[in-house]
Amino acid sequence: MRVISTIAELKAVIKAEKSQQKTIGFVPTMGYLHEGHRALLKKARQENQFVVLSVFVNPLQFGPNEDLETYPRDFEQDQKTAEEENVDIMFHPSVAEMYPNELSVSMKVRKRTDVLCGESRPGHFDGVAAVVTKLFHLVQPDRAYFGKKDAQQLAVIQGLVDDFNFPLEIVPVETVRESDGLAKSSRNVYLTEKERAEAPVLYSSLRMAADRIKAGEVNPERIVHSIMDRIQTETSGQIDYISILTYPGLEKMEVIKGNYIIALAVKFSKARLIDNIILIEE
Questions:
Q1: Catalytic (active site) residue 37
Q2: On the CB side of 50, how many CA atoms lie within 13 Å of its CA?
Q3: Which of the listed CATH numbers 3.30.565.10, 3.90.650.10, 3.40.50.11890, 3.40.50.620 matches domain 2-173?
Q4: Which tens digits make up the pLDDT trace of 231-257?
Q5: 153 is in an annotated binding site
Q6: Known binder of ligand: residue 149?
Q7: 245: alpha, beta or left? (left if phi > 0; alpha if psi -120 to 50)
Q8: Which residue in the list 37, 92, 124, 225 is annotated as catalytic?
Q9: What is the pLDDT of residue 70?
Q10: What is the pTM of this model?
């Protein structure tokens, strides 16, 4: 595996691989890799002849009240993980390398951002769209891999690719879970022992809701209230949101039908956990 920190070197490597007609799989991350990232890398390795991982903490997607400097970083562990997953290139640029000058063009994501986590993070997905656009141009992947756990980000990026006809496929990857159903996350270590025992209720409440919908319930308010009641009864967490929306459009539904997502966020004492179930009609 090669670690590359400059755009010029990355472009040279990509050009050489493209000249050999190799398919390129790309996993963009902000580092501090965990098992969810490993699942993306494994999928990319299975489906492509050349795999690129980017590790870049993107300042454009941090708001004024979000501390960019305290975002967790562990380059040595990330490098070890990448090597274990047989990554070919780990692109690890500095902020100065990615943004040598103030951007002369800004991006504004107009849809899919004013709900779920995006509602409390104005401008966040503008920064995501900007960096992903830049990375897609640099890596020129055939396929790019994103986890379903960050379903809103996945929806925004799918919209970006569709709107601007990027010549690549977005590949959603299933959420990696613990044996009790809790979605794996670096935030889980901040749960107390009691909270960790309660946390699987989040996913089981989503599963319960999905079963009720499959059984014929089409009223989103009744489903939301059933999830709310269970979380409030069985956990000490504070509900941030519970939403049922179209997917990937992320629009409100009067009646549950078609493709949809059931998503939630719950705050515990030192960790805010998100989870979702996406249901797509075959």
A1: yes
A2: 19
A3: 3.40.50.620
A4: 999 999 999 999 999 999 999 999 999
A5: yes
A6: yes
A7: beta
A8: 37
A9: 83
A10: 0.93
